[in-house]
Design goal:
This protein has 4 domains: 68-235, Rossmann fold, CATH 3.40.50; 263-347 and 378-474, OB fold (Dihydrolipoamide Acetyltransferase, E2P) (Beta Barrel); 497-751 and 834-895, no CATH class; 911-1000, Beta Barrel (OB fold (Dihydrolipoamide Acetyltransferase, E2P)). Helix 1 packs across helix 3 (125-137). The longest helix has 35 residues, at 874-908. By secondary structure, it is an alpha+beta fold. The termini are far apart. It has 26 helices and 39 strands. The strands form 10 sheets. Strands 4, 5, 6, 7, 8 and 9 form a 6-stranded mixed beta sheet that branches. Strands 20, 21, 22, 23, 26 and 27 form a 6-stranded mixed beta sheet that branches. A 5-stranded antiparallel beta sheet has the order 12-11-10-13-14. 30% of the residues lie in helices and 25% in strands. It binds zinc ion. Zinc ion binds next to loops. One of its GO terms (molecular function) is RNA binding. InterPro entries: Dis3_CSD2 (IPR041505), NA-bd_OB-fold (IPR012340), PIN-like_dom_sf (IPR029060), PIN_dom (IPR002716), RNase_II/R (IPR001900), RNase_II/R_CS (IPR022966), RNR_Ribonuclease (IPR050180), Rrp44_CSD1 (IPR033771). Its cofactor is Mg(2+). Residues 338-358 are annotated as: Disordered.
Length: 1001
């Protein structure tokens, strides 16, 4: 398909509005379609400078009837030689230096041309979000504005014949500068265009002399500032690279990575099927091995070695080319982590032995590692598990973000106080170390620091980055918590003023109306009469102890016909969070609350989460209720949905609820209701299990904190009571009922959650292990078959074995995901783990954004209020789903990392011998899981034996044989073996990460 643009025409429509017309002619199968796009231009777009006396009179209110705010200061910062100035930035500066733009000590009064905002959005969504936040929330402090240059009659430009889109956009930015310079000349305010693009700067030099604005590179601009030294330290490394490129002689380059393919070749290859696109996932056990899942392949395609990975980061979207069949191989049976790899590299890049000139892509490391790799290659040939391998030929989207790490002490020259190159080891062990330049190397040793990655030129072995800020000392709670939040991209800053302004003015004094037919209340809330008054129902909530954000409450009552009325009542969050508000935007962006051991990062402000929405006992609260009539067998006779007002009679902990139910002396109505709920929930659960719902496991532990000192005390494995299950079953039932209802009403855009069946290849390895070691097998024909076969994986000698298999199976499963119904066909809606055909999340709107959307769709479905376009538009729903899927995953990882950190702290003072299970056997070590702490650790071959060279790895038997230290007898260790391990917590000197160190005893 080709698109041809016919020269645009301009015409004046009415006062203040012109239109330029673009005609696209698309030919498809020889035919042609004509598409006309109209682009409206206006003359009422203000400059937004407080100095300006012209623009105040031309502005018109927007759709919300608000006038634009004039934000740019009358007294912007002065520079010597230049005087008062506003800054205009181009796309690359934003992508490169968003940290600097956010920095509170530079970049004030900044104009972001709309074309730049658009380009940033296409290139990096995370940076776009940060830029949007800056423009939205920095009124008083930094004063960033977006100038709609593309809609302004004076600044819009047409693309010239033969002009590339990039050149056209650069020219559009220059046009904006030119207009601003002219427009503000009278007020003594200058315009500086900050751009690192040399060609652009040269183009400006030609034009700008006559147009009266300045242009500077980022470095030149920083140099003009009064705090230049401090700011220059934070400048992305790419600048240094660009400046010094000519100075780096060929023979000093450390490695030559293959050049990326040209765009045209990539596009051609993707079309013809000779190249493939996908996301790289780096192995957590071997950072020099990645894989790409490609639709047409049954197994991920392997990418082995640094040269084939060709500078790809974990999570990058890349284009790969398959290697010849002779180079196909099995996944690595060797473990290798980045932090201990080439520890002695010199960050100045001199004197390194160039291991990379060797064309064989697997020989990338030291002699010792090379021997292991050789062994590995031999093993791979013996086995039949050969997989196709590929190399990266292009990177289409970088996953680069800010990273937390610490300076590698060995890379610091202690004798100099000047600027020097050092390595930063990142906390994420799937990533390479980063080279930064800093003056503060010594001062930053032993600190957690934030860095940004800037570039990875092909002659550099490690990517270049720059220092952003320091979080504090390694192992201080503040630094570690912030590090963890940053690493998992959790938004933890306080809610902005604009968000808080969306909360009810009454604050904590907000009250649900006493009567739903009170005319005065109805005048405030016209939807009030549509609510059902359920304050007479004996409702209670059951949650973990100390829960303050109570999303859900329940009740049950015997009906005259012998059936049960059961209600699940969910906090009516969307009564307070309206579509399109800043509060809604913030919730959508956060996507979920994040629970750490000692901290909760809320999705919504506290006032809502723990007060107005929270279904606290003894007070009236708005709710969204699902009301069923269930028969004694827990079959649904009837279901109704209604917005309601309720009054919870009690907030129980699981344990309190259990005690109350179990106490035969309690015979009040509330307790009878709870007993009925429990009895019904047991039937619901049985029905689910009969249908094939899975009962999987994860090694979940809970860390008890000392309430006085906030120090972690002990670690406990989570216990489950029958009341946990009671709540869970009714939440599942509510989610399923709501899913059906919103799918009926909005077949294309219903917010749902699916869980795909695992491909059988995911279980291949586990099944081989089970077959070989235990003569057991997991079936994958259906979830029912899987559930039944899991039940059969029992070792009479070892109670824990079944749980172990469930834990290992969980890791073979696919992740559940949010989606909108138009994205899949009905059979693919299935939730495999729960064994239901359709599912959503409705029951936790205080802490999950999916539920917020589901509430709005349900409100639309029952005619409570019309559904906004936001949740009826496939494209918008797609954006929401992508974001909440990512946020949900990150929140899970952050929670786990928090537990891991605290478990490490607990173990610090308790060295002990514990029972562990071997869950993986490598060529050069074993991985052991310790159930008591929920930790797993790698025991390297060096720590098992003094004679690592003599160790024998039997891949087919999942067995490693070696001569233990201080022993003459050979010991064999195989997968699933129960072993005693000494557990202690150590601080790794290279990564500064505390982790469980395990030793076989
Ligand atoms: Zn103006």
């Amino acid at each position: 398909m080709s698109t041809k643009v016919v020269a645009p025409r301009k015409k004046r429509l009415s006062e203040g509005l012109t239109v330029t017309q673009k005609v696209f002619i698309r030919s498809r199968n020889g035919g042609a379609t004509k598409i006309i796009r109209e682009h409206y231009l206006r003359n009422d777009i203000p400059c937004l400078s407080k100095s300006c006396t012209k623009c105040q009179s031309i502005v018109v209110p927007d759709a919300k009837n608000e006038l634009p705010k004039f934000i740019l200061s009358e007294e912007p910062p002065k520079l010597s030689k230049i005087g008062k100035h506003y800054v205009v930035v181009d796309t690359n500066i934003v992508l490169l230096a968003i940290d600097l733009l956010e920095n509170v000590s530079c970049f004030f009064d900044v104009i972001v041309p709309q074309i730049v905002l658009d380009e940033v959005r296409n290139r990096s969504y995370p940076v776009y979000t940060r830029l949007r936040t800056l423009c939205r929330d920095s009124d008083d402090t930094k004063r960033f504005i977006v100038f709609h240059n593309e809609f302004n009659e004076k600044t819009f430009i047409d693309r010239l014949p033969n002009e590339t889109i990039n050149d056209r956009n650069d020219r559009a930015i220059r046009k904006t500068c030119e207009w601003y310079a002219e427009h503000l000349k009278a007020y003594g305010i200058n315009i500086i265009l900050v751009t690192n693009d040399r060609l652009n700067r040269e183009a400006v030099k030609k034009e700008s002399e006559s147009h009266g604005y300045f242009t500077k590179s980022l470095y030149e601009y920083a140099d003009l500032l009064s705090n230049a030294d401090e700011i220059k330290e934070l400048i992305p490394n790419v600048d240094n690279y660009a400046e010094s490129k000519e100075l780096l002689p060929e023979d000093m380059s450390e490695i030559v990575f293959p050049e990326y393919y040209q765009t045209s070749r990539v596009m051609g290859g993707l079309r013809s099927g000779s190249l493939f696109q996908g996301n790289v996932q780096i192995s957590e056990y071997n950072f020099l091995e990645g894989s790409v899942s490609l639709p047409r392949f049954s197994k991920p395609v392997l990418i082995v070695g640094q040269k084939n990975l060709n500078r790809a980061f974990n999570g990058d979207q890349v284009v790969v080319e398959l290697l010849p069949e002779t180079e196909w191989k099995a996944p690595s049976t060797l473990t290798l982590d980045s932090e201990h790899f080439d520890v002695n590299d010199n960050p100045d890049g001199q004197g390194e032995d160039d291991q990379f000139t060797n064309e064989n892509s697997t020989t990338v490391i030291s002699d010792k590692q090379r021997r292991l790799l050789a062994k590995e290659a031999i093993n791979a040939q013996k086995s039949k598990k050969v997989q196709p391998t590929a190399k990266v030929v292009s990177i289409t989207r970088r996953s680069w973000r800010q990273y937390v790490g610490q300076i590698a002490p060995s890379s610091v020259d202690g004798k100099t106080n000047g600027i020097q190159n050092v390595f930063v080891i990142l906390m994420d062990k799937c990533l390479p170390k980063i080279r930064i330049r800093t003056r503060r190397a010594q001062e930053l040793l032993g600190k957690r620091i934030v860095i940004s990655v800037d570039s990875w030129p092909e002659t550099y072995k490690y990517p270049l980055g720059h220092f952003v800020r320091d979080l504090g000392d390694v192992e201080s709670t503040e630094a570690e918590t912030e590090a963890l939040l940053l690493e998992h991209d959790v938004e933890y800053r306080p809610f902005s003023k604009k968000v808080l302004e969306c909360l009810p003015a009454e604050g904590h004094d907000w009250k649900a109306p006493a009567k739903l037919d009170d005319p005065e209340e109805i005048s405030k809330d016209p939807l009030l009469p549509k609510r059902q008054d359920l304050r007479d129902k004996l409702i209670c909530s059951i949650d973990p102890p100390g829960c303050v954000d109570i999303d859900d409450a329940l009740h049950a009552k015997k009906l005259p016909n012998g059936n049960w009325e059961v209600g699940v009542h969910i906090a009516d969050v969307t009564h307070f969070v309206k579509t399109g508000t800043a509060l809604d935007g913030e919730g959508a962006s956060r996507g979920t609350s994040v629970y750490l051991v000692d901290k909760r990062i809320d999705m919504l402000p506290m006032l809502l989460g723990t007060d107005l929405c929270s279904l606290k006992p003894y007070v009236d609260r708005f709710a969204f209720s699902v009301l069923w009539e269930l028969n004694d067998n827990a079959d649904i006779v009837n279901v109704n949905f209604t917005k309601s007002v309720i009054k919870s009679r009690e907030a129980f902990s699981y344990e309190q609820a259990q005690l109350r139910i179990d106490d035969p002396n309690q015979k009040d109505e509330l307790t009878l209701g709870m007993r009925a709920l429990l009895a019904l929930s047991i039937k619901l659960k049985q029905k689910r299990l009969d249908a094939g719902a899975l009962n999987l496991a994860s090694p979940e532990v809970k860390v008890h904190m000392d309430s006085e000192t906030a120090d972690p005390g002990e670690v406990e494995i989570k216990k489950l009571l029958a009341t946990n299950s009671l709540v869970e079953e009714f939440m599942l039932l509510a989610n399923i009922s709501v899913a059906r209802k919103i799918y009926d009403a909005f077949p294309q855009t219903a917010m749902l959650r699916r869980h795909a069946a695992p491909p059988s290849t995911n279980f291949e390895m586990l099944n081989e292990m089970l077959q070989k070691r235990k003569n057991m097998h997991i079936s994958l024909e259906s979830s029912k078959a899987l559930a039944d076969s899991l039940d059969r994986c029992v070792d009479p000698q070892d109670n824990y074995f079944n749980t172990l298999v469930r834990i290992m199976s969980t890791r073979c499963m696919m992740a559940a995901q949010y989606f909108y119904s138009g994205a899949y066909s009905y059979p693919d809606f299935k939730h495999y783990g729960l064994a239901v055909d359709i599912y959503t999340h409705f029951t936790s709107p205080i802490r999950r954004y999916c539920d917020v959307v589901a509430h709005r769709q349900l409100a639309g479905a029952i005619g409570y209020e019309p559904l906004s376009l936001e949740h009826r538009d496939k494209h918008k729903m797609d954006m929401i789903c992508r974001n909440i899927n990512r946020k949900h995953r990150n929140a899970q990882f952050a929670g786990r990392a928090s537990i891991e950190y605290y478990v490490g702290q607990v173990m610090r003072n308790n060295e002990s011998i514990e029972t562990g299970y071997v869950i993986k056997v490598f060529n050069n070590g074993i991985v052991v899981l310790v159930p008591k702490f929920g930790v797993e650790g790698l025991i390297r071959i060096e720590n098992l034996t003094d004679a690592a060279e003599d160790a024998v790895y039997d891949e087919l038997e999942f067995k490693l044989s070696f001569k233990p230290k201080n022993s003459d007898k050979i010991r064999e260790v195989h997968v699933f073996e129960k072993v005693d391990v000494q557990v202690r917590s150590v601080l790794d000197p290279v990564s500064s990460k505390r982790k469980a160190e395990l030793l076989l005893v």
